[in-house]
Design brief:
single chain; about 220 residues; alpha+beta; Structural Genomics Hypothetical 15.5 Kd Protein In mrcA-pckA Intergenic Region, Chain A; Pseudouridine synthase; 2 domains; nine-stranded mixed β-sheet; four-stranded antiparallel β-sheet
Length: about 220
């Protein structure tokens, strides 16, 4: 490309092989297109505690996800949100393309939650959740669901959704008359919370990143 005169640095055609440029200061153009320095994509899993908001900072001074990951000293953003009273798996990354796909309903990436509710669901309740609950003016929200255990008048329900509407799981259950006492997200697509302690963060493995990107339709 240099021999063909297709590379310029700061508007001047490069003629010598081995010419050096600083990608942070110099404008390098190859075949008419500016060359941009690619940032390293990074991916982390956080087990968000209850009582923490899913933002990097809060003007009201409430505990935030940013407080939990500030020691990483990286420019990361949360993928989607978990509300103040919901705990569990939260993905943080600087990969904007992956974020867009994981949060858009068209890619059908499943998110699984475990909910503790105040009374056991009936077969009619379970069928209604599977068929779809209308929680706003849009289309009905569907879920894959089963009862993990029941006792003492309470039930633990595992529920999988394929969208990310605001407080979707809580709103679906509340629409059927349930009071959600606890809610924890356990997985996003193939990525599982596993044994990650509450409030802790870890880097994803290359295998996990590959599986997550494949689930989002990149491969």
């Amino acid at each position: 490309m240099i021999r063909a005169g297709e590379v310029t640095v700061n508007g001047h055609v490069v003629t010598a092989l081995g010419t050096k440029a600083d990608p942070h200061r110099d404008r390098v153009v190859v075949e008419g297109r500016p060359l941009r320095l690619a940032s390293k994509r990074e991916y982390f899993a956080l087990n968000k505690p209850v009582g923490v908001i899913t933002t990097l900072a809060d003007p009201e001074g409430r505990p935030s996800v940013g407080d939990l990951v500030k020691t990483l000293e990286r420019a990361l953003h949360p993928v989607g949100r978990l509300d103040f009273h919901t705990s569990g798996l939260l993905l943080l990354t600087n990969d904007g393309e992956l974020t867009a796909r994981l949060t858009h309903a068209r890619y059908h990436v499943p998110k699984t939650y475990v909910a503790k509710v105040d009374h056991p669901p009936t077969d009619a309740d379970l069928n209604a959740l599977r068929a779809g609950i209308r929680i706003d003016a849009g289309r009905a929200a569907h879920a894959r669901i089963h009862v993990a255990k029941s006792g003492g008048g309470k039930s633990w329900i595992t529920i999988t959704i394929y969208e990310g509407r605001n407080r979707q799981v809580r709103r679906m259950l509340e629409e059927l008359g349930f009071r959600v006492e606890k809610l924890r997200r356990t997985s996003i697509g193939p990525l599982s919370l596993g044994s990650l302690p509450t409030g802790h963060v870890r880097a994803l493995t290359s295998v996990e990143v590959t599986a997550l990107r494949r689930a989002a339709g990149f491969e």
